[in-house]
Amino acid sequence: MPALLYTLGFLTVYLLAICTPWGQRAENPWFYLGKQGGEEAWIYPLSGAAYGSTPLPPMELSAKPTLMAGLAVIVVLTLVRRCWRQGCAALGVVILTAGGNDVLKSTILPRPDLVGAPENLLDQGFPSGHSAIPAALTLAAVLVVSPRIRPYVAMAGVLWLACIAAASATMGGHRPSEVLGATLLACACYGLATWLLPPAAAPGATRSPRALPVITLTLALAVALVSGARNDTLTRSLVSAATAFICAALVWYAAVGRPAHTARRARPALD
User: Fold this and answer.
1) What phi and psi values does residue 218 have, to the nearest 5 degrees?
2) What pTM was computed for the model?
């Protein structure tokens, strides 16, 4: 069951990065560097942190409006296509991801201080709310759109996620583990939703040009590199970009790759 695998991955990231001294020591310096010098990131003028700048959704104060707009689009698509079960599943993915993110962050998953870190590094940010929104909305959208355009919707969402995930990590808003945790949480909710759907309503094989996965992941890597770039440190830039690329690959596989593999496994039994 993919939902179980994503959940295990989520818990593994939390336990290794948050609940071990070496995990905290590895991430705290990068987080501190970003908090102290977010203006060194290339994407800083578009982050909303700069005075008078308009944030890329869902960064800064645009998070809730982005979430509400995404939910409204899902409702409209559900009404237009009359895909009631898929629409309910899509809404469930977004609500579970966003609501679960807040509950986990505030009450269930604490950040113990195992290394005597400064007080400003003890705020709980696992998982990342900013990264959870594009991941959840992308996975929800592929449930309610036509199968013909599903790969292209997933492609657009993956590139959006790569940008936001890299920006969140490189500017110090979130540690890499928090960004990765948010993506795994969204994938777990999507896996649960598709598992609960009846076979007739579950996503089937997604036909797309053979080159599309390579093109998508290549563009996602390029977007992650640009969005994660900083002027003061190459290491932080590469770590942020790598984290964002992994998040993009996870969502692409969950949205497009896994249904196609399932269909291929089932095809011989249908012949």
Assistant:
1) -65, -45
2) 0.90
